[in-house]
Amino acid sequence: MTNQEILYQGAEAKIIKSLYLGYEAIVKKRVHKRYRIKEIDQLLIKSRTKEEAKVMAFARTNSVSVPLIYDVDLKNGSITFEYVKGQRVKDIFDSISTDQRKHLCFQIGSQIGLLHNAEIIHGDLTTSNMILSDDTVYFIDFGLSEISAEIESRGVDLHLLMEALESTHSTHAHFFSHVIAGYAETYQGELALVKQKIDDIVKRGRYR
Predict the structure, then answer these.
(1) Is 124 an active-site residue?
(2) 91 with 62, same domain?
(3) Full domain range(s) for residue 169
(4) 145 and 123 Cβ atoms separated by less than 8 Å
(5) Where a domain ends, among 47, 82, 117?
(6) Can you tell me the mean pLDDT for 7-30?
(7) I need a labelling partner for 38 at 20 to 30 A (CA). Which of 56, 130, 174, 185 fits?
(8) Looking at residue 65, which CATH number applies to its domain?
(9) Which residue is catalytic, options 124, 134, 141, 200?
């Protein structure tokens, strides 16, 4: 890999734009933690890299739009995947038209429904972790993802997105209803149970 450019440096990982066999690519490389015992740190990085790659691949086989994985390096804690050309949903959400926003939210909800059908919980559903490319919403950053059949987990996943809209896109937070509409279109479980769980989580937050 050559021509590397660090796009983002976080506490958990570096996001690097690079080339892989001539293709534009993104490398997500987990950061070593000096405060952890070296052997434990290596095991954690290896395990988390493996799990994230597995979930991304599993999501893709279940028709969820995620970047194609090119390579997984467990020793160095890195995943190399295709560079999706597009815009972060966070950067465009407030500036697009009402109809475009409705359509976008419906797409997001549809994708979440497909995730949850496969018992995949993203764990960090924010508009920062979505890319709009050629009218397709791609989900990225599965670092906090897990496999769970629990209604609670589905509710928490959606509630996180609801909170993200309220905090980052407060003027348009009500468009979450279109996310739920899209979710209802693809989700194969009991929608009423998921909606009730979201309501329960909201109530718990009010009475803390």
Answers:
(1) yes
(2) no
(3) 87-206
(4) yes
(5) 82
(6) 92
(7) 56
(8) 3.30.200.20
(9) 124
Nearest to 185 by CA among 63, 96, 76, 87: 63
pLDDT greater than 80 at residue 173: yes
Q: Are residues 45 and 97 in the same domain?
A: no
> And the tokens for 1?
């890999």
What local confidence, expressed as pLDDT, does residue 204 receive? 84
Please tell me the predicted confidence (pLDDT) of residue 32.
87
Question: Would you tell me how many other CB atoms lie within 10 Å of the CB of residue 174?
Answer: 10
With a pLDDT cut of 70, the percent of the chain lying above it is 98
In order of 22, 39, 41, 125, the CA distances from 34 in angstroms are 34, 11, 8, 29
CA 64 from chain center: how many Å? 11
Q: How far apart are CA 144 and CA 122, in angstroms?
A: 7
Average pLDDT over residues 1-15: 81
Between the two ends of the chain, the Cα-to-Cα distance in Å is 50
- Which amino acid does the sequence have at 152? E
Query: What distance in Å separates the CA atoms of residue 114 and residue 112, rounded to the nearest whole number?
Result: 5
φ and ψ of 140, to 5 deg: -130, 175
Please tell me the distance from the alpha carbon of residue 76 to that of residue 29, in angstroms, as a whole number.
Answer: 7
Burial class (CB in 10 A: 0-12, 13-18, 19+), 27: buried
